[in-house]
Amino acid sequence: MNLMEFSEDQVKKAIKNGQITISVIGLGRIGLPTAVLFAESGANVIGVDIDPKLIELLKDGKNELDEPSLDELIKKNIKNGKLKISLDLKFTIKNSQVIIICVPTSINKNHSANYSIIKKVIEDLSGIIIPNQIIIIESTISPGMVENYMIPVLERGSKLKCGKDFFIASCPERANPGNIIKTFKNTPRIIGGITQKCTNIASAIYSSVIDSEIIKTTNPKTANAVKLTENIFRDINIALMNELAILYEKLEINIFDVIKASSTKWNFIPHYPGPGVGGSCLPVNPYYLIDEAKKVGYELNLILMAREINEQMPEHIVQLIGKSLEIAKKSIKNSNICILGLSYKPDIKDIQLSPAISIINKLKHLEAKIRLFDPYFKNQNILDIKVNSSLENAVKDADCLVIVTKHKLISNINLQNIQKLTKSPLIIVDGRKTFNSENLPNKTIYQCVGCPLIIS
Amino acid sequence: MNLMEFSEDQVKKAIKNGQITISVIGLGRIGLPTAVLFAESGANVIGVDIDPKLIELLKDGKNELDEPSLDELIKKNIKNGKLKISLDLKFTIKNSQVIIICVPTSINKNHSANYSIIKKVIEDLSGIIIPNQIIIIESTISPGMVENYMIPVLERGSKLKCGKDFFIASCPERANPGNIIKTFKNTPRIIGGITQKCTNIASAIYSSVIDSEIIKTTNPKTANAVKLTENIFRDINIALMNELAILYEKLEINIFDVIKASSTKWNFIPHYPGPGVGGSCLPVNPYYLIDEAKKVGYELNLILMAREINEQMPEHIVQLIGKSLEIAKKSIKNSNICILGLSYKPDIKDIQLSPAISIINKLKHLEAKIRLFDPYFKNQNILDIKVNSSLENAVKDADCLVIVTKHKLISNINLQNIQKLTKSPLIIVDGRKTFNSENLPNKTIYQCVGCPLIIS
Description:
The first copy, chain A, is an alpha/beta fold. Chain A has 2 domains: 3-218, Rossmann fold (3-Layer(aba) Sandwich), CATH 3.40.50.720; 222-456, Rossmann fold (3-Layer(aba) Sandwich). Chain A has 17 helices and 18 strands.
């Protein structure tokens, strides 16, 4: 079967009728929903991963992601045979018309891009792919990596010609973890193929699972530039708010009042300061582009500066902790400091590159007595500290509470009740503007990032 | 009359019934529309300025701003006596209940804030104000300037107590030049007074002229922080696009394709690269906050970096001109270079801090033969060069056209016709993505900022 000879309508029909087999490589936070939704659309899907434990789990219809409605979709599609799970890349590829790559990319300790996993996949594929296949890259990569690395490697290994014998397109994931199934379907997707026909066919494939717009762009590198530009936009704007937050603390201005009022201007959209940014995208994607720029002798100074500011925020939080304790004539050393929230964003179970990690490490170094609480990580060991199983236990006799993640359960905390458990005064360093400063109980020292210090 | 004893409804009624006199200090691009609209609302308005020529012009019902519907509003309100124009600050103030300050602020050559005009106004007022007056600052100033400078100066000079004998609020202008009357009425305004009552009364005053929301904020410094934050947000985001534009030129990616596709993400809003930013706000407002931060020992590195990038764009345009000419084996020296558009934004007559100025100065230094065309500046002298009266004359025998401002008339240029007048090949350096690269005539070298070079 040669999809490139199909019309877009024929592609959609073939998927619906179960005539197309799609392999999804990498069954993590992006690949798993992708595989499941294509199975739902009618395609035969084979999900492949290198982790035998994950494969066993999935074959049983289970998964470790905490995503609404994902569990039931996996169970259903495993049971009805639309979704198969495999460790065998070669077998999977030989039986597919479409190959979707969803493996993670990251950065090395020196902040250079780490593409080792996806490079391994491309090398492996170069010896396996068969004529007329279309490869679609969802993984986040530098613009040009498809054109300058993947195509040469695939052509060399397969002896096939890209754009004639096989095809490649980028369709970068735009997932919103925590609500991934819904946002996968509702968010427009960007597709850039190596030829116009390839872009059209890849768009037809995704139109089976995306209810929203599909934007056909110029080529793979443009699609990848879109993904990085979006995330850099967020990183820069959060950095701006972090830089302003530190200034407005000094000027005794509440940055949240400023953001609220600024948001009424037609050309402003709000971003918020915090203890730093985390997750698998914002802290790493900017470095992919910084790296790529270096190769052509160009320094992305603004983007680098934004990274510096956001990476420095955990240190700022630690400084706020120190200053707040000092008011009560205490120091970080030997104080009971309770970190509330570990995830990098609210109401998901994900600690990847969360600022909580840096804050905990810094507090350890300063010899604080650290307690952790996060409803998503109860009883787990995080940096050799066991996460408390109850909020009450975590805050008992605490000298300082530090809000890192505004999980619902944390923002619903009743400070009047909590105050009875902690030491007095109640000291809160709030990275997320969790509490209304007008409702603080008496004898509270409240330092929210970007706000004047409040002593009630 | 003591406005502070009025309810908000009483204030509105008193304005409508012509019982309130408002003086507006500074009759430029902000003060004039403010004065006119308050006169329209029923208030008696006295506009005051130090420029005798401007006063004479306005008394005749004329003005030099190119703003839709402003002319007729001035004529009408001068004629019916609602708007008076005066050189006499003392007389004006003695007869007003409300004083609105709309004088310009700017920066010095070393980029420090230049508040000389507004400081002079405040000093003058300190000897003139009478009890129960409310002073409203529309001028853009640093957060804290009302609290730390204006109030002490006014109290010292007047022997009156702020918050008791007289009142002060910030209501920073949020004008959109080019459509100022309409946007003045339709744009929400931020008001922060020195007391809650003062905020309420100032809000009531503005509700007579603003059809949109009025946001009451904490205090004057918060209102001023809002104004600076909004403009810095724009400056940073334009800088980001400028930084990416230079990279994407090198990677042969079209940044306008990237921005278009990125704009389909729920949390992205588009900004565009260009030859640099101009006008009285973006190039100067960031320095007000940078200055203020320095006073408290803090460096706003991200904001400074954005300024550097935006200020460097005219140089980048000149480099693009040089490279494009080089392809045709020409150099900037002695080439006929035609600058199209001088205003800092399209379809207004305003060259304040426009990037055109830097570009022209740089080209002069490189000994180019410079021609200028801008429909709003025909026959005027700009940097000792007379602006051409016709587009055709300006482009005749030009070696290179440089688009700085996308005035409608310029974006409607027919390149096929223009090509017959210029030297061959037609070389265009486009700072504003004015032309569709697919419709270029043959023998054209087209270098748009942020895009791959096109030779057709």
